[in-house]
Amino acid sequence: MSEATDRYNALPDEQRWMLWELMCEEQIRMIAQDEKRIKADSDRAVRAGRDRAKRIQQELDRHRAQQSKKGGE
Length: 73
Known about the structure:
rod-shaped; 2 helices; 93% helix; 0% strand; single chain
């Protein structure tokens, strides 16, 4: 075993439980931060996709308008 493990195992039970609780709380905080980052990344990707679709639709509409002008002349 490592020196850190030996030192941890040498602690009284109360201190080991306290450290375990602190580690669990930190993991929960890290997971919450990851969730926020993933959601923000996803929101940006969705927004970029919608913007791209909107630009494509506008280009298509302009093209159709030009075609209808040519056909009406």
